[in-house]
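User: Hey, my collaborator sent me this sequence without any context and asked if I could get a structure. I don't really work with proteins. Can you help?
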Amino acid sequence: MSRIAALMYDFDRTLSPKDMQDYAFSPEIGMPAEEFWRRCNDLMKKNNMDSILAYMYYMVKMAKEKNIFLSREMFRRSGKNVKLFPGVTEWFSRINEYGESKGLQVEHYVISSGIKEIIEGTPIAGEFKRIFAAEFLYDENGEAVWPSMAVNYTSKTQFIYRINKDVLDVTDSKRLNDSMPEEKKPVPFPNMIYIGDGFTDVPCMKLVKSTGGHSIAVYQHEGEVADTLLLQGRAGNIAPADYREGTQMDKTVKAILDLIAANSRTTELYVDDLEAAKARSKKE
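Assistant: No problem. I've predicted the 3D structure and written it out in structure-token form, which is a compact way to encode the shape of the chain:
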């Protein structure tokens, strides 16, 4: 059995307290975050749009109106303003070391409806093997003109399948849909942990949980959505959004890594026993 453990994170309100646009775009256009999102929602409802396409369109529209050059560099620069929950910056190295002590290789992924280029500007961008998120198409001058990738709550699930098969190129649909024996898949579903904060994470949580993996709902205040997700069986665990050592999140993830390591080892022993039994049967 594979000894790779994949931790997959939503971003907004999971690793960061607010939507990334609240830190990295609304201030650029001089508009309160609440007003920005209200206008995006109005645009969505009026035009029967996907919510992600609506906010991406509105970002391009407002940038033009405010004479702001919306480029990759601008997004990445503004990404430095994104705040993170306590302990997030130290989290990855500590969890990697713990996984290694259990014989596991831990990989981290983002699966977000936010903007990939903003996430790339945060101090933790280098911790992820891959960032799956919404992206813009840029013209010959480097200005954002159109969405090239929109990631909503249901399309998030495709990236779990990509991680499962290690088909990380989002343009490669053939290999993603090709048949692959379960034992050949680099990251089995039972080796996955999905961490998210709300109802938009439900499809991913249910997919991972129903296939033997693990899901954790994070919350900033008690009595939030996380309780509902746990009571409905959509999340396997809940934890405050505090990633420091010794916290509930820290203990929960380490306990799950213990379980993944134990399952990997028992599966390896089973395969060894099976091969030995086959060899003995041939001699008889």
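In plain terms: Strands lie at 4-9, 105-115, 130-138, 144-149, 192-196, 214-219, 237-240. You can pass these tokens on to your collaborator as they are.
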